[in-house]
Amino acid sequence: MTDTFGVDDALEHIERLRHGETLTTERASAVLGLHRTGRLADYQLSSWLATIAARGLRFTETVALTRAYLGPARRGARIRRSGRTVVDKHSTGGIGDKTTLVVVPLVAALGVRVCKLSGRGLGIAGGTIDKLESVPGLRLEFTEAELAARLAADDVVIGSFSGELVPGDTATYDLRSVSGCVRSAPLIAASIVSKKVAVDADAVVFDVRYGAGSLVPDHGTARRLAGLLVRLGGEFGLRCRAVLSDGSVPLGRAVGNAAEVDEAVEFLRGSGDRGLAAECEALAVQMVRVAEPDEPEGRIRERLRSAVDSGAALSMFVRMLTAQGGDTGPVLDGGGYCRPGARTAVLARGAGWVTDVSALGIGRAALKLGAGKVFADDVIDPHAGIRLTRHLGERVAEGDVLAEVFHRDGLDSGEAVELVAGAVRVGPRENCRVPREPEPVSEADVHTDGTGVVHV
């Protein structure tokens, strides 16, 4: 179909989709093929994505879109490997979400093979690749053969997806971020699962975050999206689990690319934030369980804590960076990667307890500082970001430093400072927000109706 399918056909297809025509792998592949060869403009592909986002897709259509994202070379049955299980994980994104930087080396330190294919930021949520690009020299983009070789040599690798691995997702990922299509459940699911299939993972743990500042607004929607991800992964032969995480407050204390890498290193040294620790442990437990189903959960938790206490998890992180060409000096000498040109303090305007920290407000402030993209051609400042010196439930006096804002020298940080000041709320102790604990979801928790329609 691709050879005879032209721009006029693509536009007619978009019109028909709006009126309920079924999306097929062939039609989706033809549209993506036109864009890949330069015959379909970005704004036309954005119109196709917006149509999908507005209309929604049935489950069978989401499967078709996922196959189209993978490209013709990878649409058949997956090749099952012998030997140890390869585990991947993926987060739907949130403010301060640096769990990948923690759990990948932590789980690998327990002898589990981990191959993590990550993406860039979507909307105000930062991406793992954006964070890791603040490590000088670190190589992140691999071909399929190179990714397999890295995994065979070291049992752990984090990489970005290349056009060869997931051509359809490569074409649409950035456009989703700048065309108002970030929150579409079918587009989220097809993007995530296509990358997991592309790296030939055996099992995947999905971290589905919800709340202001996340892609998913509430707990109920997050559970349904988790069910869609688990079911879609199973359609491609993956063993899947999911964890629901409350993203209404920033995860940890750092928001920004290099700042979050530094916080992950601090965690692996044994001094992690309590909320970050709870979520990382919940994810790591599920990752080990899909690889070692007979291992008791209590024993897994003991092994994870021992890997941090002994330094094995940090050593694995350094080993991974070294294998991928990254500069490990800032980890080894303790200096860190985040070196902003200027820092501005955000002061408490009253006394009391920190009752809430709005993830949405902190995320918007980070964007103002240059930690993410508003337009497709924006350049990210790896050192821009925010460090919370006070978090939920902590007592403050008037004039105390609530946060530090990191920015380049000469940047007017006034708007970002006001956003941070508004995001960190101080009041009576009894008004403190209590985030929900991470909640595991497995195949047994997935419920779908008989029509195959997925409502997220």
From TrEMBL:
GO molecular function, one term: 1,4-alpha-oligoglucan phosphorylase activity
GO biological-process terms attached to the record: pyrimidine nucleobase metabolic process; pyrimidine nucleoside metabolic process
Biased composition (Basic and acidic residues): 434-448
Chain segments carrying region Disordered: 434-456
Keywords: Glycosyltransferase, Transferase
A Pfam family hit: Glycos_trans_3N
InterPro entries cross-referenced by the UniProt entry: Glycosyl_Trfase_fam3 (IPR000312), Glycosyl_Trfase_fam3_N_dom (IPR017459), Glycosyl_Trfase_fam3_N_dom_sf (IPR036320), Nuc_phospho_transferase (IPR035902), PYNP-like_C_sf (IPR036566), PYNP_C (IPR013102), Pyrmidine_PPase_CS (IPR017872), Thymidine/pyrmidine_PPase (IPR000053)
Domain of life per record: Bacteria
A GO term from the CC aspect: cytosol
SMART domains: PYNP_C (SM00941)
Domain Pyrimidine nucleoside phosphorylase C-terminal, chain residue ranges per copy: 353-427
The family this protein is said to belong to: Belongs to the thymidine/pyrimidine-nucleoside phosphorylase family.
Subunit structure: Homodimer.
Protein name: Pyrimidine-nucleoside phosphorylase
